[in-house]
Write a structure and sequence with these properties.
Blueprint (H helix, E strand, L loop, with lengths): L1 E8 L8 E2 L4 E4 L2 E2 L5 E4 L18 E5 L2 E5 L6 E4 L10 E5 L2 E7 L2 H11 L4 E5 L9 H11 L20 E5 H13 L14 E4 L9 E5 L3 E10 L18 H7 L1 E2 L2 E13 L3 E2 L4 E6 L2
Parallel strand pairs: 12-13
Antiparallel strand pairs: 1-2, 1-13, 1-19, 3-4, 3-18, 5-11, 6-7, 7-8, 9-10, 10-11, 12-17, 14-15, 14-19, 15-17, 16-17
Helix pairs in contact: 3-4
């Protein structure tokens, strides 16, 4: 059994997290408003902290029918979640190997982000006509080992601007073990926000999530489809935007696999009646062996 200790959304892809201490709505597309917006450059390519670490300093807050962004040295900017008249104008966006649609949030929003990031950019919101699905090749290995535990239907796979799957789960014990190596290197321990998870939990030994097929609780089931492959982005301090060498070096030392450096589990919602996750909620664990 695991216990949820943290719930986070990242409303604007690669910007700061919004915590949900009172719980958050959940659907097959992810936690409510998670990665619902994306920043793109002049070529329409999505921007991330990998190249623009200052994105970590942009703090979005979705609340009371609007989204507000704040950043050091900038006046806060708010705009409505209600779709404007131009909602039917769709902009093509490629997120890694999959294509989807966005809706431009307008010149005022674009100027705010361009001023802070010091580069021309636009902000797109996931379009109402977008139909982005988890790629079949990502799901097939999980289905082969699931032995009928849960079924993944094509209708369950739609989501927004997240990299590959709609949910990311991380284990506090795994971070503690990773930080043991970070501390041995003479660096300070890193917080969980470096890994930009949606659901943080306790209840499993370090890295035992690697062997979990999924978790469930009274009509709510998540498939742990695959381990999350890590780029250098966890090296970005989410509070200062400074880029260091940890936890990347510790990950390379301890979590290097043929598919890459791994930390956390990417997941899909495969069964839901509850529609909400809360801090302290427990979920039963189904192992893959």
């Amino acid at each position: 059994m695991i216990t949820i200790t943290g719930l986070f959304t990242h409303p604007i892809k690669s910007c700061a997290a919004q915590a949900h201490p009172q719980g958050v709505e959940v659907s097959v597309a992810g936690l409510a408003h998670d990665r619902e917006w994306v920043v793109v450059d002049q070529q329409g390519v999505f921007m991330t902290q990998r190249r623009w670490p200052r994105m970590s300093l942009i703090r979005p807050l979705v609340q009371d029918g609007q989204i507000t962004v704040q950043a050091p040295g900038m006046e806060p900017l708010s705009w409505s979640l209600d779709a404007p008249v131009g909602d039917n104008v769709a902009v093509s966006v490629r997120i890694w190997s999959s294509d989807t649609l966005g809706r431009d949030e307008g010149d005022q929003v674009a100027q705010w982000f361009s001023d802070f990031l010091q580069t021309p950019c636009r902000v797109l919101r996931n379009h109402s006509r977008a139909r982005r699905y988890v790629l079949t090749e990502r799901v097939r290995p999980w289905e082969e080992k699931s032995q009928g535990w849960r079924q993944i239907g094509d209708q369950l796979n739609g989501f927004g601007f997240a990299d590959a799957l709609p949910f990311l789960f991380t284990n506090e014990a795994s971070l503690e073990e990773l930080n043991r190596l970070v501390l041995q290197s003479g660096e300070q321990a890193v917080p969980m926000d470096r890994f930009r998870a949606n659901v943080v939990f306790t209840g499993l030994p370090a890295y035992e999530e690697d062997y979990v097929l999924g978790v469930s609780s009274e009509g709510l089931s998540f498939a742990f489809v695959r381990q999350c492959t890590r780029c250098p982005m966890p090296n970005v301090n989410q509070r200062t935007a400074e880029v260091g060498t940890q936890p990347g070096l510790a990950l390379a030392q301890s979590r290097q696999f043929p598919q890459g450096t791994l930390f956390g589990m990417q997941a899909m919602l495969v069964e839901s009646q509850s529609q909400r996750l809360t801090i302290g909620q427990t979920l039963d664990v189904e192992y893959s062996f």
